[in-house]
Fold:
Amino acid sequence: MRRAGWYLVTGAVAGFAGVLGFHIGGTAAPAVLGQPAPGELGTPSAGPGAAAVRARTVAGAVEQYGYGQLSVTVTVRGDRIVAVSVPVLHTMDPYSQQLARQVIPTLRSEVLAAHSAQIHGVSGATYTSEAYAQSIQSALDKLHVR
Amino acid sequence: MTAQPAPLTTHAEPVMGTVFSFTAVHGDLPADAVRAALAAACRVLHHCDALFSTWDPASPVSRFRRGEAALGQMPPEFAEVLRECRAAKEASGGWFDPWAMPGGFDPTGLVKGWAIERALEELRRAGLSGALINGGGDVAVFGSPAGGHRWRVGIRHPWRADALACVIEVGQGPVTEERGLEPAGGSGESPPRAGIAAVATSGPYERGAHLIDPATGRAASRAASATVTGPGLALADALATGVAVGGDEALPAVAGLDGYAAYLIRPDGSETDTGGIAFAP
Structure:
């Protein structure tokens, strides 16, 4: 359901992934989006020359986590995150899915999908070196390295 | 590496079993000086790790825990961390207690934040116009990000690694106002953390084993996610651990501290905070 409306631009992203040394795609599903679908975009950056800045997308490998499998994809235009999505999210059981649906919307401003969030870092419980590779912070770091 | 001097340098350094992310805003500093400052900051982190790693059986802290080394034989940093631990235990109302950890005194819940403060101080002294260090989820900043304004720190969603629960704004402006930390000069005693703002988050979703209820000595958590902001990361780190263990009961202690604030996501998904946190709209 969440996959609806996503563009699959695997070729372009795979080329980019080579530069980043990032795993693209996954075993369970095509885990790549090139451009956020219309309506998923935040306000484009107002900075000078922003229009010339192409969106860049990286996707993490499909990983096991406590309740199933997931992969995370981050799209950045300039210094601005325009989309964060989960191309692959398989929970182990219907209960986890139900829980996720029920609990998450009670949070402040629902789930902030980082649309136009323009963040400089992510604070969270300490991740291991392995978990870092799948974190939003890791994607931010890779996208800043030129 | 690049021909043009970049206004921004980022760096990721594996240390302390996690990865530290750096964002350095050059200001007027040449790129090679920025790289030197980042290298110095990383050396600080590795030094702290060598002293305080409870994973390394040969580290000074491990030898202390086994009773093989007395206080007097410990490196000078140890006394400082001990002092900070005592202060943090008191400030947290007892919810953060390094002396109640399995296996003896364990300052891990504070040391990472303490080390980040010291690393950030290297960057500040070098003359950068701003910097952010994220040590595996604990964040400290000074100055301003590249575009000016304030630093924006996302708080990871406790149940979704890809999402944020909210965004918090931290940095110079409000911190300076609230804390009255005008540029040094007035008292002659320059506070080491002047202009630093910290965001620490703790929770059971990554590796919760360090969340120990001091009253029972057992793993316990009354929070899905606990975030503490304030002018120092050593204390914020310890307080976040305390709030993650104690939940609502630990909030009054944080609320009573000058400059510190807490944001709690309870296990049922409901939220509360002490006030004093600048949530981005």
About this structure: The mean pLDDT of chain B is 87. The two ends of chain B are 38 Å apart (CA to CA). The first helix of chain B runs from residue 31 to 52. Chain B is about 30% helix and 25% strand.
